[in-house]
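#struct-queue
[09:14] JT: dropping the first one here, sequence first, then the structure tokens:
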Amino acid sequence: MAYKKALAAAAGMILATAAHAQAAGSNIVSLGWFRVMPNSSSDPLFVNSVGGAPVNQSVPNTGAKIKEADTVGLAFTHFFTDNVAVELVGGLPPRHKIEGTGSFSGYGEIGSAKQWSPAVLAKWYFFSADSKFRPYVGAGLNYTWFSDEKITSSAFQNQVLGRGTPGSKSNVTTDSSLNPVLNVGATYAITKDWFVGLSVSYLPLKTTAKIDTTLINGVHIQSEAKIKINPVVTFLNVGYRF
């Protein structure tokens, strides 16, 4: 009978551990798939100067939009209480294709850039720590910057930025920004240590792309485009508690 009592006690301990897999003090690492879906629009291309002389003129019926992108996401979550957690989230930077709109639409893809968007979120989990299904809401801050920005259409480069002059080159830079993040989602416990999760986030994000074009004769043309990105981001993931 002693061994039966020992087995029952061990089973009770296992069940108790499984029942509090997302309790105060728990740490969870999640790996999964980010889908970044911009709701983008832009102001017309604005020419600041040509050869150092101010122009300050917009080009009517021009614009650009940011296309969707996929990447690998990684998150670390710590539970301070059974219901309150803080999450650090990031991932491999997705490369966004940029397409022309208005009179630029005929060029198709005109550029691309990589987006870096780490974030920290405070999250409130509903239900008790022993619930398998736990929805949550969250809010936090995101810092976004871009890298490897470039013009990818030679026709757009020569005909628009180079003003019909072959052999021009352009350097593109973008602003970085600190942005709020709104987040909703849920996790489902498969075992005491393994989880699956899905979240949806929204970022009110905008940037200014600054373009320095050098013509073949050495003349510089400075122009810019203000772009609203405002992405909705989904994160389908698998998590492990340790």
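[09:21] JT: and here's the second one, same format:
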Amino acid sequence: MRALLYREFSGPITVAEVAEPAAEPGTAVVRVAASGICRSDWHAWSGHDDSVPLPQVPGHEFAGTVAAAGPGVDPGWIGRRVTAPFVNGCGRCDWCRAGQAQVCPFQTQPGFTHRGSHAELVAVRAADTNLVALPDEVSDRAAAALGCRFATAFRALTAHAQLAAGQWVVVYGAGGVGLSAVMIGAALGAQVAVVDRSAAALQLAGRLGAAAVVPAGADATAMVLDVTGGGAHVSVDAVGSPDTARDAVFSLRRRGRHVQVGLFADQLPVLPMDRVIAWELSVFGSHGMAAADYPALLELVRSRTLRPDALLGEPVDLADAAPLIVNGTPAGITVLDPNR
């Protein structure tokens, strides 16, 4: 099958012929219709997670049709349109049995632990735990945007931050995760402020429902405090840098909640723990969302309350996707079609 492949960290990414994944016990093989190009692909390719085996096929956000089911997998999945979280729980441990597969200690991740979805076929392990059936109203391209960015933002704002209608949420970074958070926050009835250095990204955030947009810089935190009337109830760092993490915490009002979703490439942040203690702030990490929690998110998409397709540009083929992993994508979400 055709797939994107890299043989060394930070090395060339090429379109190559690779072996098709096998329908091993507990595993389903999905024929990929759409696969999202995500910043996490760049982190894996860059070697920030040195547990990634080489050579590797990137890609962890996808939608498609189940082509084969291995022993122990419900054969009723075959022929169904599906997606899956980017974190695939084992289905057996205490965390998976409690519905918290996103922190499974035995998790697998396409594009990280095994070959990913920037290919014609991808394997989903512990398939009965991790496959998510797609409603007819949710397109393949929209579903491919959900697996990492929308799912991560949705769980960050609902399960962790408990964002309520009328509250302020400030989002640092208007990339895929950040813009997903903007749309979800607006869909939940919250007021959203966005901080980013890109004027184009801020304009897009405004069109997607942000009530306030703030250029990144030395005055950004002060501007957020002003526009939110003393600080946001919730802050999200969707970038993953020491500066954005710190500024996001300083943007909160007393008893506010910070959620960290952006991954750090090199330097870890030093958070103002004196402020966290004195103001009784809460700090959360958020790492995707289990398949069991998808129905609420899919219902928002099915009902058109949430429209991930608004973030989608034109699909690209495998060859055009390779430089986008290395150099970054335009504002919004870019999805590849491996069949083009």
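[09:30] RK: nice, looked through the second one.
[09:31] RK: DSSP finds twelve helices and 14 strands in the chain.
[09:31] JT: good to know. The CA atoms of residues 162 and 192 lie 14 Å apart.
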